[in-house]
Amino acid sequence: MNELFSNRISGVAPSFIREILKVAVDPAIISFAGGLPNRDLFPVEALQQATNDLFNEDGKDILQYSSTEGYLPLREMIACDYRRKGLEISVDEILITNGSQQGLDLLGKVLINEGDEVLIEEPGYLGAIQAFEVYSAKFKPVPVGQDGMDIDALQDTLKTTQAKLIYTVPNFQNPSGISYTNENRQAVADCLSKTKTLLIEDNPYGELRFSGEEKRSFKAFLPEQTILLGSFSKTVVPSFRLGWIAAPKALMEKLVIAKQAGDLHTNYFCQRVLHRFLKDNDLDAHIKKIIGVYGKQKQVMENAIKRCFPKQVTYLNPEGGMFLWVTLPEGMSAMTLFEKAIKDKVAFVPGDPFYVTKRDLNTLRLNFSSVDPDVIEEGIKRLGKVLHELLDN
Amino acid sequence: MNELFSNRISGVAPSFIREILKVAVDPAIISFAGGLPNRDLFPVEALQQATNDLFNEDGKDILQYSSTEGYLPLREMIACDYRRKGLEISVDEILITNGSQQGLDLLGKVLINEGDEVLIEEPGYLGAIQAFEVYSAKFKPVPVGQDGMDIDALQDTLKTTQAKLIYTVPNFQNPSGISYTNENRQAVADCLSKTKTLLIEDNPYGELRFSGEEKRSFKAFLPEQTILLGSFSKTVVPSFRLGWIAAPKALMEKLVIAKQAGDLHTNYFCQRVLHRFLKDNDLDAHIKKIIGVYGKQKQVMENAIKRCFPKQVTYLNPEGGMFLWVTLPEGMSAMTLFEKAIKDKVAFVPGDPFYVTKRDLNTLRLNFSSVDPDVIEEGIKRLGKVLHELLDN
Questions:
Q1: If you ran DSSP here, which 8-state letter would residue A140 be given?
Q2: Which of A15, A35, A20 is nearest to A341 (CA)?
Q3: pLDDT range class, residue A20, cuts 50, 70, 90
Q4: B270 and A265 in contact by Cβ < 8 A?
Q5: Hey, where are the domains in chain A?
Q6: Residue A164 with chain B: CB contacts under 8 Å
Q7: CATH class of residue range A52-280
Q8: pLDDT by residue (tens digit) across B174-214?
Q9: Assigned CATH topology for domain A2-42+285-392
Q10: Disulfide check for B184: which of A142, B18, B148, B311 has CB 3.0–4.6 Å away?
């Protein structure tokens, strides 16, 4: 069979996270490894109501095939929300996808030839690395820190590359939780405006801000070259797999062809349910509730870290999102820590999968959105104990 | 923007059907062009019940992220149904996809390098042509007729190709409605068993048989080389976008990697609803109802054709499915007929898009599943009138 596989898939390994987490199935393990929203916040009753209303009023229509682009009134809502934020994006520029992950796949499909260069944040979102790796992209990492992208490094990289794409998560980045300042966005845009590189602004967590001020979208700084990816997974529910791409019309035409060849269209039933839910409910109020819970959980984790971790261990303080990024003392391997921590029944994701070249790193990602406060306390205590043991050796 | 597009997408044209049907939006037009199941047969109440039961019992769980492979009990049901039909397929060999169209996309992704040869039925399913075209496959058409694939043509083609894949819809094929006899399947399998070519048996309509006897799956004739694609779109509802791939384990491993990189997993909420619906309802009885309606509509169409079409126009008589395939007299273009028919407010799909090389053909596809009997009568009458006019000129 092996000789039949395409070149593009032969080199792609099974997900690192999937593999390492196979050891973490023990229910006694406290896991900060996930990337899940908190299930206690899912709007179960409101979604049930929306579903019943639709079945009662439009039962047959919601069950038929539909259009590749997606349900028009849902796309209108997305366009309207952008308008509210000062971005003019027409309905024709919006395609509903199976989560924003499919947005990445479609962009890879219509843009990347084998060996094409793609700039990516380092550390960066594993799912983007996987999506573009399947199209045999050649990654050029650009470091990100507390304020955003390293502009010197970006300038240096642009001198020697003709990258088609640059991938960013400028708000509460996965994995590091950092956000780009407005000044950093402007500087990134200034660099890119001299190139043909398209910038992907992936924004799954943007609404989940619990401190600081909202930043401006790259679309405002670099309108012709920016592609926006959005998702309802973190603000409503993930199981519906509903996200979108907002892209300039010439690109959208190709994306629609690829989407049609790929799966005809996104689940129409759930597009209708989501639209009805959004029409009949106050999403802003719902998001405020999520922010309240995540903000508190982040604070509990931070306080516990201050109390339990050795002083040599540092972390970045996120203003929103779901993740907190930890840096161990130089030379200490997060993989080694992971192996010891699992024995003490606590799990996290070591930094390695978020880098395209480096390995055996001293960074790790902690998720606070899906773990209750008292469990966070206990988990951080366990992790602190392992850290102290490792450092004392 | 154009210079940024990947080679794979640059050559792919927008869907021919999509384009030609833009002229058919007038509601006064009777359309035999669609490929839609009959919406009056959707099990609305039973699906509403299943959904409510799930919301009431498991509200949070059905809304969270889930596994790439799909909901295990749903995959078990699919394996069980294969077992009932005498095919041993393990749960590990089944992946839930966004409709079987995504199955085609994933197979293209993990198997096809640029220029790889793919054998395809002629006429053949447009969606398969589109899916593999995106991966720059080189198509080798093999004609199909009333009894299945042209074995001489297949043997000839195999002499000069090293095709990785052969794509078939052996039951009530789209577009021609034909089915492969058991003898034809055996002969196809005999040819392929000497090669490494993988056979795709796409079977969206297999359950919808209204006459004749059930045929054996290619999996029984060619077990190591057969990949099965299935779908709930024609037996339950299409808007859920739920299908599956059943493939040997070595291939499945790669498909799961591609699926994860492509969209993480299929809509989990609808997987749960579908599973609950199947658990609490008698699918066989529901399918029997569909068969009753489609069988009748097929008969009405056939009778109307006999009455209204010129004798020189012939058709293939399907034993199931949703389509009836018409052949015009030699030299008469179905595209020309289409243009005239639209003016008389009746639409169909000309044969052209179902062929990978030939153009301006004298064949066309009529759909009978989504049109009511009295409308079928009227539509065929209109089409007969146009045919007579064309022939009399």
A1: E
A2: A20
A3: low
A4: no
A5: 2-42+285-392, 52-280
A6: 4
A7: alpha beta
A8: 999 999 999 999 999 999 999 999 999 999 999 999 999 99
A9: Aspartate Aminotransferase, domain 1 (3.90.1150)
A10: B148
Residue A358: the pLDDT is 86
Q: How far apart are CA B314 and CA A88, in angstroms?
A: 54
Of A12, A239, A261, the CB nearest to B63: A239
B233 with A196: Cβ contact below 8 A:
no
ipTM of this complex = 0.96
Q: Residue B155, SS3? A: helix
CB within 8 Å: A55 and B42:
no
Residue numbers in B near A267 (CB within 8 A): 98, 239-241, 267, 270
- B98-140 tens-digit pLDDT: 999 999 999 999 999 999 999 999 999 999 999 999 999 999 9
pLDDT class for A383, splitting at 50, 70, 90? very high
B14 contacts on A by Cβ (under 8 Å): 253, 256-257
Residues in chain B: 393
pLDDT tens column, A281-336: 999 999 999 999 999 999 999 999 999 999 999 999 999 999 999 999 999 999 99
Lowest-confidence pick of A9-13, B67-71, B148-152, B250-254: A9-13
Q: Give the single-character DSSP code of A24.
A: G
Looking at domain B61-280, its CATH architecture is 3-Layer(aba) Sandwich (3.40)
Answer for the pair A51, A250: CB distance below 8 angstroms, yes or no: no
What residue in B sits closest to A38 (Cα-Cα)?
B64
